[in-house]
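Fold it.
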Amino acid sequence: MAFFLGGILSASRRFHFIAVNFDDYCQQKAAPDGSSTYYALRRAPASRLALLTALHALRRELEETAKETSDPTIGRTKHAWWQKELASLFGGEPAHPVTKAIAAHAAGTPVLDDEGRGFIGNMVDGFELDLEQARYIDWAGLRRYLDNAGGAFAVIIARATARHPENVPNWAMALGSALMLAERVENIGDDARHGRIYLPIDELQRFGVTAADVINRKYSDAFTELMRFQTGRARDALNQALAAIPADERPTQRVVRSHAALSLALLDEIEREDFKVLHQRIALTPIRKLWITWRVR
């Protein structure tokens, strides 16, 4: 079945429409072949695969709106459009392929109940922070961003498959925040090329590294020690969050656990590469991603 994609025209702020299949759109947006998300979603229950793919696509849309728009005014316009589109989703009249897919596949899940809508709103608020600031003074400020953009997302997808959705925030929030922290550590170089540094300013100062050093790809012993600290904190946060998943939920949470397994492996690879993340993006091979996620039981 073909549906319509409403694209924002930055000049006129009107819409144009192209026919797309919403499931195909979500697959390409969220999980193209070979990506980490592609392999993590291979561990999803068949009955929830389309929904989880659509939710990952929603996250990707919000992330692109905030991070890949050079003009802040256009970014805010697009973000406001997504806020309205999500309100339309909650009202039963979605227009975008991603929201159409969520509406089509969310039946029988708590994704769009009152609590679910609240966490979707928190995720939207989290990515809105990317439109407002590109630096964080301290860990407390960065943690707020991680909890909203990452923690809320993990709660959303975990509740879609959980045996006890009402208990999910107790453990999934920390896992999502840890996943987001690991992602920011992994992508420091790429983020810096877009003018964003997700390293608290007070921690840069503590290790004797400047924002200019990061942006100009300047490696040093101080940067190595800074990265060792950041990588260690992300690794510890992931392991602690994984250990907190209730035993009866572990089989229902192979997707988020696969994301965590991939992040842990990538952090180890970054450390083996002596934290040379400023000029390149260190990645796992597709066959290694397949092996890592296959081992998640």
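Confidence is low (pLDDT under 50) at residues 1-17.
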